[in-house]
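Action item from last meeting closed. Structure (431 res):
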């Protein structure tokens, strides 16, 4: 071996996965079946659960954890020096002003920088705006390592495509985009992921191209959902059932099957702001993307308003009434509470003086309290509510059926089925 190839990590080099959440843990497990992996996380509770064989995200089973024979967990940064490849899978949220918050990403880069050695590769999977890896993260790596980018150490980017709660489209079944800071590094990164991704890989032209590809995936979905949300608002004023319209339109082969709803989670409701932030820094004010964001961000208020109007039509005294919300997580059959927009519905209903109970058997009560100040009800009393909103389409709610859910309400209550869990005839309101 000569030149750059001589200093790049060997095929059996130890990998360190930084951040063991919905993205990092499945990655660490798959690589841990084949080669030495250090799973690093700063949450001691998370690590204790994983050491005990339990994944609180419910993405990885006890049996799958046991299969990762070469995986070990740690919160000690000094353990990272044993690795030659670092994969960063920490969150990239937005702040209260909807601006990108790179704090977790930069802190991870600082930790890795202190462990970097000559020839090491740092691969980022966290969603960012184009240029963030090389413009924001690399300087932190250089500062904390004393090494030079693309001379002493190298970088790659392979955007995560994890879909929480989806047992069909899991890590190895989703094609992986890869990129590297040099052609040789790009080939190394691509081969690394190809060793675990059955669906194959796609080597992008550059890190910036890979970053941009990731951020537009969810921006596209966000805009499509915004369109059907706006259509739902229009059709509601016309007295037309939106689902009936979408079903009819869906008979054409190229009609896209998006449905209206609350747009939360760690990706779709966040990623567009990363792209528009970078555009604004370059002097361009987004028109279409931010318009879609405004529609989707306003759906919680719209849903609450529709509920209140329906209650008034039933002559229900709104102030002091009780409403039950079924579901708090951002999507069905998943415990993920990140950026859930159900809280917007709760907050708006409370503005009307409504007493709101939230029930979600998938959600962690401690996390709901810590993140949103909400105390979930452990069980739902019968005949106690003036209104019921099915906010998340958990399978358990569908299994309750019309009678089971209607039993929660008082006589004359309003049932709002946001997720079309029940048959068309069963609900008083549908989005």
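Sequence:
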């Amino acid at each position: 071996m000569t030149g750059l190839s001589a200093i790049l990590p060997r095929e059996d080099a130890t990998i360190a996965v930084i951040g063991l959440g919905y993205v990092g843990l499945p990655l660490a497990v798959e690589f841990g079946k084949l080669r030495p992996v250090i799973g690093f996380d700063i949450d001691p509770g998370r690590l204790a659960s994983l050491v005990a064989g339990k994944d609180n995200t419910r993405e990885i089973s006890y049996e799958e954890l046991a299969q990762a024979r070469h995986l070990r967990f740690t919160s000690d940064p000094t353990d990272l020096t044993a690795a030659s490849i670092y994969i960063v899978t920490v969150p990239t949220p937005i702040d209260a002003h909807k601006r990108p918050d790179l704090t977790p990403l930069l802190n991870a880069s600082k930790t890795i920088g202190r462990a970097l050695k000559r020839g090491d590769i740092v691969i980022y999977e966290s969603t960012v705006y184009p240029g963030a890896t090389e413009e924001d993260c690399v300087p932190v790596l250089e500062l904390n390592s004393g090494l030079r980018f693309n001379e002493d150490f190298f970088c790659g980017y392979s955007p995560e495509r994890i879909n929480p709660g989806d047992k069909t489209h899991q890590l190895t079944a989703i094609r992986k985009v890869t990129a590297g800071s040099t052609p040789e590094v790009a080939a190394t990164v691509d081969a690394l992921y190809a060793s675990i991704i059955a669906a194959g890989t796609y080597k992008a032209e550059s890190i910036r191209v890979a970053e941009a590809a990731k951020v537009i995936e969810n921006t596209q979905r966000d805009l499509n959902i915004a369109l059907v949300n706006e259509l739902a608002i229009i059709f509601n004023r016309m007295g037309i059932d939106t689902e009936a319209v979408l079903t009819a339109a869906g008979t054409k082969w190229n009609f896209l099957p998006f449905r209206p709803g609350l747009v939360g989670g760690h990706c779709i409701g966040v990623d567009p702001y990363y792209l528009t932030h970078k555009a604004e820094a370059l002097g361009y004010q987004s028109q279409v993307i931010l318009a879609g964001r405004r529609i989707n961000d306003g759906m919680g208020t719209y849903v609450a308003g529709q509920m209140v109007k329906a209650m008034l039509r039933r002559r229900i005294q709104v102030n002091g009434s009780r409403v039950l919300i079924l579901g708090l997580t951002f999507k069905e059959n998943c415990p993920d509470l990140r950026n859930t927009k159900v809280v917007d519905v709760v907050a708006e209903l409370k503005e009307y003086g409504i007493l709101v109970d939230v029930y979600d058997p998938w959600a962690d009560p401690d996390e709901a309290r810590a993140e949103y100040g909400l105390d979930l009800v452990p069980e739902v009393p019968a005949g106690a509510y003036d209104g019921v909103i099915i906010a998340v389409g958990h399978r358990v709610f569908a299994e309750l059926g019309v009678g089971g859910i209607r039993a929660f309400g008082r006589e004359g209550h309003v049932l709002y089925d946001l997720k079309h869990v029940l048959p068309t005839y069963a609900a008083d309101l549908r989005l």
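Note appended to the action item: The chain has 14 helices and 13 strands.
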